[in-house]
Amino acid sequence: MVSAWAAASHLVLAQRHVAEHSNEKTALPFLLEQLDLVGCIVSIDAMGCHAKIARQIKEQDGEYVLALKANQGTLYQDVVDLFADALTPQGADLLHDYHAGQDKGHGRVERRQYWTIADPEVIAYLNVKEAWSGLRSVGMEDRGAAGG
């Protein structure tokens, strides 16, 4: 079962059964078709990080935040390399945003750091084939936890 969840309302907006011998990736386009995405931000874990899904969300007038992982080939490695460069003294001129925070809970301190890059020239370089409809920024998260 794959579900669309409205976090602010704590509501399931739609669900789609995943057929036997199938996976969530094949059910996701049908689930998205059931939704009015105009003005919405759709966030999907790495399972849904595919150019076809991004294009469908944009065609339905939505925006997206997708988790990128290594199965996306050169895009993943290009983003990894981009942030590796941006976080060195030599990459200091590459404009990026940064946010850090920490929370205490469950007997530990959780630390999170986030970086984003939205420079149109950099995004054009990453999306040279324009496969990722509406791609406007990339981000990186680093998180960790320490006891007590």
The profile of the biggest β sheet is:
3 strands, antiparallel
Look at the structure and give the CATH class of the largest domain: Alpha Beta
Q: Which consecutive residue ranges, at least 5 long each, have pLDDT under 50?
A: none
Q: What fold name goes in the CATH topology slot of the largest domain?
A: Double Stranded RNA Binding Domain
Number of helices: 4
Euclidean distance between termini CA atoms: 37 Å
**What is the strand arrangement across the widest sheet?**
5-6-7
Structural class: alpha+beta
The helix/strand series, from N terminus to C terminus, equals EEHEHEHEEHE
The number of domains is 2
CATH architecture of the largest domain: 2-Layer Sandwich
Average pLDDT works out at 90
Helicity range = 25-40%
- Shape verdict: globular
> What percentage of the residues does DSSP assign to strands (E)?
25-35%
Radius of gyration: 17 Å
How many DSSP-defined strands?
A: 7
Textual characterization of the structure:
β3 (41-44), α2 and β4 (63-66) form a beta-alpha-beta unit. The protein has helices at 24-33, 51-59, 74-86, 120-126, and strands at 2-6, 11-16, 41-44, 63-66, 97-105, 108-117, 138-147. The protein contains four helices and seven strands. With 148 residues, the protein is α+β, with helices and mostly antiparallel strands. It folds into two domains: 1-67, no CATH class; 69-148, Double Stranded RNA Binding Domain (2-Layer Sandwich). The strands form three sheets. It has a three-stranded antiparallel beta sheet with strand order 5-6-7. A two-stranded antiparallel sheet has the order 1-2. Helices cover 26% and strands 32% of the residues. The N and C termini lie far apart (37 Å). It is globular and about 50 Å long.
